[in-house]
Amino acid sequence: MLVYLDAVYRNHNKRRNVSTPFLFEIIYSITLDGEKYFVEIIQEKKNKLPLITITDENCKPIEVDDEEFELYLPQKIIGYTSGENETISIPFLAYYDEYAEHTATRAFGKSDELDYEPRFYFMDYNTNLGIVISNLVFEECEGVKELKEELKIDKIRNFQIIIQKKSPAAPKSFIEGEKGVILTEDLKKWRDNLISAATCYDYDEKLNKYTLDFYFNDTTKEAIGFFFQSAYNFYTALYKFELLNNLMIDKDVRKNIKKDRKTRRLTNKMPTVPNKNKVLHYSELKLKLKNGQSVDYLSLSDGEHQYFNIFGSIIMVNHDNSLFLLDEPETHFNPKWRRLFISHLRLLTKSRKQDLFLTSHSPFIVSDCPRDFVYIFKRTGEQTIHVVNPNQETFGASFDNILRMAFDMDEVISKEASDKIKQLHEETDPKILEAEIAKLGDSPQLMSLYRRVDMLSQDK
């Protein structure tokens, strides 16, 4: 829905003859220049533009033309999934394809349209290195200090960025003496800025490949700050190079996958581009920990990677009117981090005008959210999903109650242990029963077994 609205109303690289994937109605509020507005969008017909109504806080209608309406859409939309949830990922990946093709068209001089800043960012394992580097280079940003403390990171030690235009998989492009991936003027400028900020670099003429080494010190930090000003700007420059990696995939493969996406068929993911063929990739990211030890970033645990990816993204994207769509963002967290997830989230976003939707199966998450903000999705038929609020308050509720409300679970211990306890209720020898009880951990169910021991002992 949001990808469709962006394609119709953005002022650059507009898509023609766009049809909505489904009919919808949405109402939301947005803040511009300190004023709050309410936006209602109704898509009644597939091949017609939606009906749009904008009012101010006094319910007074606001007249907005098509070019201005882009301002009334969410400014940034950040997606994340911890797994292979294509409901989340496919719209973002399709957006990437559009941007890469737009950049290539501009580079060949076939379009005089300006570049535009992406509205959609998809944060997954592949983007994690860029998020880490950008946050740790601009370490004074609000929230980075707490992030480093939690992960016991002192600072970034060094990292390497490789940018190449003529890899073996690069398109056989040729324009004005240039071969391979043709960069736009703004991408060339960012590449040159990265070269200027690097501690040292190596150039391979055959592949038109720059290997940029950054040893992090005050000089490097000052240089990157001079050229890019903020973690978000630095990341966006790197991100735009990364979007060009899709051009390394065979054109016919990209065309077929794009066709399948349009028909909403089950599609294969785009093939993974190996590092040796990427326009931009990272290497040798090393961190210095609080204990003085230097480690490769990739040696951190999955939970630490996920922690930095989620909270690093939130720290970096501090734009008002942003929307975060997070699919199970705490799956790799230890119990302590799951318990603190909502607290950390509120701390980072307390003064912002942003919205966040997340899916989770964790009672830790639900127990920190009031009932009115919790929605339970239940499948009631092959193609029918029923969405309801919990029937009781969830904020501060025990895990037993949450699991009962959300998952219809009357028992909260695992099935194997539950079956064992039920089996022990049939035991008639108190000595055997006591011996078996000693093998069980504490639980409310244990009390009924102790009562059975007392009863059997009295009978004897």
Task: Note the topology.
Blueprint lengths: L1 H8 L14 E9 L2 E9 L7 E6 L9 H4 L6 E6 L4 H22 L12 E4 L4 H10 L6 H8 L1 E12 L9 E2 L2 E2 L5 H13 L2 E5 L4 E7 L2 H11 L2 H13 L7 H12 L17 E10 L4 E3 L5 H15 L5 E6 L7 H15 L4 E6 L3 H4 L9 E6 L2 E5 L10 H9 L7 H10 L5 H8 L6 H16 L1
Helix pairs in contact: 4-8, 4-10, 6-7, 15-16
Describe the structure in your own words.
This protein is α+β, with helices and mostly antiparallel strands and 460 residues long. The protein has four domains: 1-70, no CATH class; 74-327, no CATH class; 371-412, no CATH class; 415-459, no CATH class. Helix content is 39%, strand content 21%. The chain is built from 16 helices and 16 strands. It has helices spanning 2-9, 66-69, 86-107, 128-137, 144-151, 185-197, 218-228, 231-243, 251-262, 302-316, 335-349, 363-366, 399-407, 415-424, 430-437, 444-459, and strands spanning 24-32, 35-43, 51-56, 76-81, 120-123, 153-164, 174-175, 178-179, 200-204, 209-215, 280-289, 294-296, 322-327, 354-359, 376-381, 384-388. The strands form five sheets. The chain has a five-stranded antiparallel beta sheet with strand order 9-10-6-11-12. Strands 5-4-13-14 form a four-stranded parallel beta sheet, sandwiched between helices. A hairpin with a 2-residue loop joins strand 1 and strand 2 (35-43). The protein is globular and about 100 Å long.
